[in-house]
Amino acid sequence: MIRIPLRVSGVDLDDDVTLELLGEHLSDLAWSEHDGGVVATLHTPAENPVATALAAARRITHHLPNAEVLDVDQELVSASDIASRLGVSREAVRLWVEGLRGPGGFPRPVGTIGNGKSKVWQWLAVNAWMQENYHIGEDEHHLSAQQIAELNAHLLKVKQPIDDEWEAASFYHRSVRPQAERNAHFHVLLEQLDEEILSSRAKGHMHWAIKMRADQSSWVARYLHHDAASYIEVSPELEQVEELT
Fold it and tell me: Which residues contact 2 (CB under 8 A, 6 or more apart)?
């Protein structure tokens, strides 16, 4: 599983109405509060975790109109935090940091706090080092640095509640069903569309929807890139995807 913590503003976890909305629509996310900030943590086995996290961010802003998904939480930790998370002494952490114990190569700190007196690290880097060398820590995966940068870039554009088109797209598997004899063919194609559209150059700039045409003769994925509209049409009669403009 890939663990993705998202920093969210505009959410009050002490509000009963908010808690009801979270339980009804966003219960697949783990919600917590750290130092006055709210974090929504997503666990996903998806092959494209960036697209999955972006879809989760859009759901958050849709169901919680005052919410804004800021970025991926860096989970900065001090030496004391590392010791607490790993269940070891602070002295053990100091020895690892200074290369006096273990294989060396402890992750470099990403900054300092307290007028430069205390160093801080990204937990994902520390956890990976501990897993590799001592087989302790949290048994989970994290986004790579490149994936974090990519997701953060897209999250800058998820500022307003999603529109009806995105809602239709993100819930197409519940609202639209092909005929039984076409199930395998269409589900494969729809998964490909879900992946390919979100991983295209236009991702982060678009709103899109997957729907069945009125005559039920084809499926259409529509996305808007700035002011230009493009269509990808999937015909149930043809084993191909046709791009139309």
Answer: 43, 44, 45, 46, 49, 140, 141, 142, 143
